[in-house]
Amino acid sequence: MVEEYRKSKTVEGVTESSLYEISLTLRHFHRLTKIITSRQLIQHNIDRYILERGKEVKRATLNKDIRNLKAFIHWCEQKKFTNGNVKSKLLKEEERPVKSLDTSQWGLPVFEHIWMFGEWL
Question: Distance (Å, rounded) from C-alpha 121 to C-alpha 117?
């Protein structure tokens, strides 16, 4: 089933790096839940995965895994591998401060090109 999903994503044009991330998520899911059949894709096992994986990674990574898992479950539902009663939500993340660039990171001297009133000065 996982290999079929990977092939379907390849046909859709998903990048190799995204396929790798999807594979990692599904490997972690299998490692933590020991699920081997689509009939075992039930709410209890999804919740257990989220709790266990949350002990290993930060929320941003866990949310990425949840997104990947939701896409996989949705695909399984479309292919009639599951009954469609599985739900999951992303977790709230701590707000990260916005970091502004300093002039050395701009790539151009600060006052060399200034856009003002619709034209370059």
Answer: 9
Burial of residue 77 (number of CB atoms within 10 Å: 0-12, 13-18, 19+):
middle
Q: Tens of pLDDT along 16-30? A: 999 999 999 999 999
C-alpha pair distances (Å), 23 with each of 6, 29, 51, 99: 8, 10, 20, 32
**At the topology level of CATH, where does 2-89 sit?**
DNA polymerase; domain 1 (1.10.150)
Tens digit of pLDDT for each residue in 68-100? 988 988 888 888 887 666 666 655 656 666 677
List own/partner pairs for 115-121 with CB under 8 A and 24 or more apart: none
